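In response to the reviewer comment on reproducibility (Comment 2.3), we provide here a single inverse folding case reported in full, input and output, so that an independent group could reproduce the run without further information from us. The structure tokens appear first.
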């Protein structure tokens, strides 16, 4: 089977319930990056997983796995957002959302917005 060339192909390669979760995660990230930058971001497959781009660089990667959905990289965030995302941290810059639990889509959107806002601030300065 060929590697997916687009984010749509990437998501379509998962079972329906995981694909639905990935679609909702994608929407939260794209909407947040769009709000921060004023333009709809490009999306691509990088390192075999989905990436939402901002200013020609990645803003956030998301991936489906057997037992969870992951977001990468997620730097340390300002409080109180960091306290909210902390229970999902798997490693320093990774967060995971187990399939066995509800996915906190609104939290993912807020995290993506914070990351995108920070990227926009750095590119403007």
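Designed residues, in position order:
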């Amino acid at each position: 089977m060929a590697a997916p060339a687009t984010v749509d192909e990437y998501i379509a390669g998962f079972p329906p319930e995981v694909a639905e979760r990935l679609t909702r995660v994608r929407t939260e990230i794209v909407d947040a990056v769009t709000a921060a930058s004023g333009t709809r971001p490009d999306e691509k497959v990088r390192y075999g997983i989905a990436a939402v781009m901002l200013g020609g660089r990645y803003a956030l990667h998301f991936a489906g796995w057997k037992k969870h959905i992951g977001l990468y990289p997620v730097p340390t965030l300002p409080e109180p957002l960091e306290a909210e995302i902390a229970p999902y941290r798997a490693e320093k810059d990774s967060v995971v959302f187990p399939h066995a639990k509800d996915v906190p889509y609104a939290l993912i959107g807020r995290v993506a917005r914070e990351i995108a806002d920070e990227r926009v601030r750095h590119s403007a300065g």
